[in-house]
Amino acid sequence: MTIELIPVHGIPEIREGDVIADAIATAAAEQGTPLADGDCLVVTQKIVSKAEGRIVAIDATDPNAKHALVEAESVRILRRRGPLLISETTHGFVCANAGIDLSNVDDGTAALLPIDSDRSAQRIRERLAAQVGVACAVIVSDTFGRAWRNGLTDVAIGVAGLLAILDLRGTLDDRGRELEVTEVAIADEVAGAAELVMGKATKVPVAIVRGLDPAWFGNGRVTDLVRAPGGDLFR
Amino acid sequence: MTIELIPVHGIPEIREGDVIADAIATAAAEQGTPLADGDCLVVTQKIVSKAEGRIVAIDATDPNAKHALVEAESVRILRRRGPLLISETTHGFVCANAGIDLSNVDDGTAALLPIDSDRSAQRIRERLAAQVGVACAVIVSDTFGRAWRNGLTDVAIGVAGLLAILDLRGTLDDRGRELEVTEVAIADEVAGAAELVMGKATKVPVAIVRGLDPAWFGNGRVTDLVRAPGGDLFR
Known about the structure:
The structure is a homodimer. The first copy, chain A, is α+β, with helices and mostly antiparallel strands. Chain A has helices spanning 20-30, 45-51, 63-72, 117-131, 186-198; strands spanning 3-7, 40-44, 55-57, 74-81, 84-89, 94-96, 109-111, 137-144, 153-160, 166-167, 183-184, 206-210. In chain A, the strands form four sheets. The first copy, chain A, has a five-stranded mixed beta sheet with strand order 1-12-2-8-9. In chain A, strands 4-5-6 form a three-stranded antiparallel beta sheet, with helices on one face. A two-stranded antiparallel ribbon of chain A has the order 3-7. The first copy, chain A, contains five helices and twelve strands. Chain A folds into two domains: 4-53 and 114-226, CATH 3.30.1330.100; 55-112, CofE-like domain (CofE-like fold, Alpha-Beta Complex). Helices cover 24% and strands 25% of the residues of chain A. The model of chain A has no long low-confidence stretch (mean pLDDT 93). Chains A and B meet through strand 1, strand 4, strand 9, strand 11 and helix 5 of A and strand 1, strand 4, strand 9, strand 11 and helix 5 of B. Strand 1 of chain A pairs antiparallel with strand 1 of chain B.
């Protein structure tokens, strides 16, 4: 079955208190791709943070200001190189600068990650069910680097209504033997796929991923994707 | 613009010497989605390795046999936990067990990574241009783990005709300031997206990714994605 990645254009600038779900549903309908049961919406962290008021003042001319903010949002600094800090955030994510971003926000402000992006995703999902009558999964995505590979990819930082990890343990390969690869991070693959139609500089903060396997809809949580420090060989 | 992820069904079992490009073109045409200019094909490493004869005998009952094979395919072992080895392969990839896989191959054999997956991808691309007359990009994909996140995702281990990294340095955000996120690993995002329609246990080793931004077609190489050990904070 074919999967479609559909950008949602026309979402207005989001401000604190705005109901993202309504803005998405309206924009999707207006561009001729109304939301449907079984869609997975991928919503970039930035507009979730804005709607939830996770915008703070920052003196961008003070090199220590962002640093202090990163430390406040982190439980542990893992590495430091020049202005770059790799830390473990309060959510357990390992990423650069605790996910704090100064792009696409007003001058003198910075966007922090949502406090609980699973809950943010769930809130959008519930609102769409109640207001529009559609059963959609929702992923909140952000852009993270990787340890050993150049470039960044979008990953899931919040999930609702979709498995985060597809567990294939016990599944047989085409020779009837158990698969060696058993846990697929489908929520991260969906987030990265959606990034391909969103871009960084364009005003497309949401994509519809249409056609995912119905068996994948379930109760995933982002903690499924976060490797516990004790199970981590590279921290 | 919408991107489509189209699984290619009906590709026969691949053996050493088979011309993958022809098998893909035939299967795509037979299922009613013939290859077209601007498509990006994502081809799983396993069938590339088979076509290129990168299958070796292994005594699966000997726990040291795979270990020895991993060491032979690696320049450095980074971590070891039980049967799991994380190493840097001869290609520069950091992954588990040097990408050696015992699933979906004959009993008593193991599939090694292609020697040069960029060249493998280029060979498929050139054959499609010559035989079918279509200009397609090609990614060879494999399934890798990540340092700090559970689950695996598909990434690019070979690229032809597509940028591996989209370099947005100098691009402005919607406020007219330079973006903080500047290098997007689009080849990895495309590989991960394609995995969503391929699965691990099904006989779908190829997907067509249709609708990528024409500006992304260019001369990417997988080395663009491989972080040099000197630039790596986690090795």
